[in-house]
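User: tokens in, sequence out, please.
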């Protein structure tokens, strides 16, 4: 891991721009949704007080009531404090994009929204950046200054690796998070070593997969002969993008990979938020908050309106979670 050569003043300006942009979203759209969804880890005892009309009968403390000769009830307060960890994939394929921004840029803004929503609700938030190794880790803490430090690190860390290792990422997460936490894992999941590490992570933590996508990864442009480079391995291949067999093989590979990922997340019970460089993350994140808050059970899978396409109808998804 190394830091980019961006001047400190320019870093501060970028952090400020992201804070202003994401704070508006947090204030207007996400803060309430976040709070209603992540209700804390349980209830904490606060006090015993005298019974008042309207109190739940089941909250009566019968031992205290017997001693005092009149009914008393136990009061609890919700344990609001959570630990939220943002794990961001910085591999070569995640630093790719053919629209106005790279997939990594989406992850930065999404992390800004989630970190500010977390600290607004007095939760701890941390950051881990990974490729085929752990590039950077910031332990979870509270406060606006910490959230801005997190955004700064996202902007300034230059990864040393190009590949993707979920095993390395999960090993560090398990050490960073001794207690059950909410883990937002942002990646394109273009790796074959994901199942065992993700299963291990999901056994202890509430894992929400954020799948980063770009249209060029789903639809091969028809531009004739082209030279393509794998952003993680550097391997170069030459293909005729106009050839029907090449286009059919590419479409099948994309469909197979999407179905394999969907089935994997389904087996592990992971929620999935699909975000696109073309459409952004706002609709997908709002759909996730709303779908998860009203689901009776099972995982939810959301994306911006209209982007789940044929896969959604084929697998029974409605764009906002399980039907």
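Assistant: Sequence out:
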């Amino acid at each position: 891991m190394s830091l980019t050569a961006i001047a400190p003043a320019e870093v501060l300006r970028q952090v400020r721009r992201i804070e202003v942009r994401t704070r508006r979203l947090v204030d207007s759209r996400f803060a309430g949704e976040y709070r209603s969804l992540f209700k804390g880890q349980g209830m904490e005892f606060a006090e015993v007080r005298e019974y008042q009309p309207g109190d739940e009968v089941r909250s009566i403390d019968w031992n205290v009531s017997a001693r005092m000769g009149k009914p008393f009830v136990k009061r609890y307060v919700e344990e609001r404090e959570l630990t939220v960890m943002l794990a961001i994939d910085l591999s070569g394929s995640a630093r790719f994009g053919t629209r106005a921004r790279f997939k990594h840029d989406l992850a930065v803004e999404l992390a800004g929204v989630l970190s500010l929503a977390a600290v607004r609700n007095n939760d701890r938030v941390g950051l881990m950046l990974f490729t085929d190794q752990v590039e950077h880790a910031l332990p979870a803490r509270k406060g606006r200054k910490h959230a801005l430090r997190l955004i700064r690190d996202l902007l300034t860390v230059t990864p040393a690796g190009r590949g993707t290792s979920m095993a390395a990422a999960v090993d560090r997460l398990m050490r960073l998070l001794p207690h059950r936490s909410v883990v937002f894992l942002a990646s394109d999941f273009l790796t074959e070593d994901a199942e065992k590490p993700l299963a291990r992570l999901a056994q202890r933590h509430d894992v929400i997969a954020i799948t980063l996508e770009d249209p060029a990864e789903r639809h091969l442009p028809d531009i004739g002969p082209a030279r393509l480079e794998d952003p993680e391995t550097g391997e170069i291949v030459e293909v005729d993008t106009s050839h029907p067999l090449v286009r059919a093989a590419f479409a099948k590979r994309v469909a197979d990979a999407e179905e394999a990922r969907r089935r994997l997340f389904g087996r592990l019970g992971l929620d999935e938020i699909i975000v696109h460089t073309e459409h952004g993350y706002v609709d997908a994140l709002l759909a996730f908050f709303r779908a998860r808050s009203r689901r009776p059970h099972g995982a939810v899978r959301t994306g911006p309106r209209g982007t789940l396409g044929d896969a959604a109808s084929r697998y029974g998804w409605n764009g906002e979670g399980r039907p």
